[in-house]
């Protein structure tokens, strides 16, 4: 079975991420969406909440599964028989760091990285921007899946009411 991983923080998952998962799932037999457990980075959603949203979002795609990992991505790849990483490239600005990581991951474990050119509809999109815009009352409808939009509004409402 040809497997690939789409790694990230997904805080929260956007329609840009989803587009990359789906396109990877058309090439590979199984795509694992790998959520990085990073205790040092502050996040809006817990890892469990992010995984729960991701699982609901990818439910219609039987060959996309969701898992969490910590430590090096290449160790997760080795432990799970995954030879390839698939990432979305939004713009030239993504390229330098992505190339660095791809080269390091290849150097460490010969894991290959394949880049999908992001759908132009979502090329300006990031989880951080979505959170910032939503925090200040901007409309992010259509940029994240509907269930994520609802959770985002819920979380912001709770934060603004101190609960
Ligand atoms: O969504 P993000 O936070 O931009 O994703 C970054 C991620 C998770 C893909 C990257 O930080 C990563 O692979 N982290 C795991 C630790 C690791 O392997 N670091 C060395 C990379 S060469």
TrEMBL record:
Q: Which InterPro entries match?
A: Cyt_trans-like, PPAT, Rossmann-like_a/b/a_fold
Biological process annotations from GO: coenzyme A biosynthetic process
Q: Where is the Cytidyltransferase-like domain?
A: 5-132
Q: Name one GO molecular function term.
A: pantetheine-phosphate adenylyltransferase activity
Q: Name one Pfam family in it.
A: CTP_transf_like
Keywords on this record?
ATP-binding, Coenzyme A biosynthesis, Cytoplasm, Magnesium, Nucleotide-binding, Nucleotidyltransferase, Transferase
Per the record, what are the reactions this protein catalyses? Answer: (R)-4'-phosphopantetheine + ATP + H(+) = 3'-dephospho-CoA + diphosphate
SUPFAM superfamilies membership:
Nucleotidylyl transferase (SSF52374)
Record's keyword annotation contains Mitochondrion:
no
- Could you say which EC number(s) this protein's record lists? 2.7.7.3
First-level EC class: transferase
Q: What is this protein called?
A: Phosphopantetheine adenylyltransferase
Q: What is the lineage of its organism?
A: unclassified sequences, metagenomes, ecological metagenomes
